[in-house]
Design a protein that fits this description.
Elements: H1 7-34, H2 40-47, H3 66-79, H4 81-88, H5 94-100, H6 103-115, E1 120-123, E2 139-143, E3 146-157, E4 164-170, E5 182-188, E6 194-198, E7 210-221, E8 225-226, H7 232-268, H8 270-274, H9 276-308, H10 314-338, H11 349-357, H12 367-378
Parallel strand pairs: 1-4
Antiparallel strand pairs: 2-3, 3-7, 4-5, 5-8, 6-7
Helix pairs in contact: 1-3, 3-4, 3-7, 5-7, 7-9, 7-10, 7-11, 9-10, 10-11, 10-12
Amino acid sequence: MDFSLTPKQHEIKQLAREFAEREFPKVAKKCDQEEVFDFELIKKACDAGLNGIFIDKAYGGLGYGYLENAFVMEEFWRVDPGLGGALTCVTFGSEMILLFGSENQKRKYLPPLCKGEAISAVGVTEPDAGSDVLAISTRAEKEEDEYIVNGSKMFISNGTVADFFITLCLTNPSSSSKHERHSVLIIEADRPGLERDKLRGKMGIRAHDTARISFNSVRVPGENLIGGEGNGFSCFMAFFNRSRAYVAAQGLGVAQGAFELAVHFVKKRKALRKNLPQFHIAQYKLAEMATWIETARNLVYKAAWNVDRGKIEPALISMSKWYAGEVGVKVVNEALQLHEGYGGLEEYDISRFYRDAKIVEIYEGTKEIEKLVIARQFLRGIN
C-alpha cells in the first residue's frame, strides 16, 4: 500500500499552495468585509492551470482526477476559505454535463468554464427542500419543444454571477416511481423570467457568492435537457458522489490552515511558554488537532482516489465529507481557543476561519444526511 503522491500530484499541490499564498492575501479581507469576489482571480487561476482540473482535455480541461481537484481545494481553503470556495466553485455542476450531457452540450458549456469565460451553478436547494432532493418542487412543464420553468431555488452558489444553472426540476410528478419524477435542465442566466437576489449578511464564506433564484415562466429549449427526462435524481446522485469527494477537502483545508495559525500564535507567545501547565495544555491541543487532520486527510484522499478509479463508494464518500467537515469545525474551535482573546479580533485570520468552517457540515449534504448514507450501507436488506 503506497500512500505517496506522484511527482505530478506534488506539483499540483505546490502550485495551488503558492498561488493561494501569493494572490489571496491581497484581497481576502476586502472580499470578506464587502461580500464580493475578485473576478481577476478566476482568470489568474485558469492561466495557472488550476481551474477545470477534472474536465477532459477534449473540452478544454486538464484531464486530471477528482483527487487532484481535492488537492487544489485543500490548499485554497488552507489560505482563505471564502476565496477558496468561490474560486473552486467556478465549474460546479459541470460533472453532470461530463457524465450525462450530449456532445453538443459538452462542447458548448465546458470550454468557457476552463478558460475563465463562464461560471456555472447548481440549482437544487429550495426554500422548503434541500437535503431531501426528492422534495424539490420547481416545475418544468413540457410545451412542444420547450420546458416552462416555475419555482425558486435558495442558497445557490454563484447565484448572481453564474452564466448558467444546472437545475433540478419536477417534470413527471405523476410517475409511479418517486425517483423518476425529476429532470435536469441547463438554464442560461439571461433567459427572460429568471431573477436572482444576492444573499448578504452570511456568517461565513462571504467572498463566495450566494443567491436566491426565481423562475417565472422561464422558457428553456428541450435540447438543454441533461441525461433524459425522469433521470434527474440519478444524475444528481452521481454528481454528489463526486462533488462530496472533493468538497470534503474544504474541511481538511480549513483545519490545516487553522492549525498552522495556532502553531504560529503559540510559538510567538513567550508568556505562554513560561507558564508550563498552560503550555502543556496547548501542546496537548496541537497534538490532537494534528492527529484529527491526518486522519481526515487519509479518508478524503482515499475517497477521491477511489472515485478516480471508477470505484464509487457512497458510504466512504459520505464518511470523508462528514468527518472532514467535523474536523474542520473542531480544529478551528481549538485554534481559536489557543488564540485566547486575540482570536475574537478581526485582524486575526482565525476569526474568519471560525466563521467559514461551519458551512462544510451543512452544504452538499448535511452531516446528518451523510450519516444516514453511511448507516444505510450497513443496514441493507432490513425491512
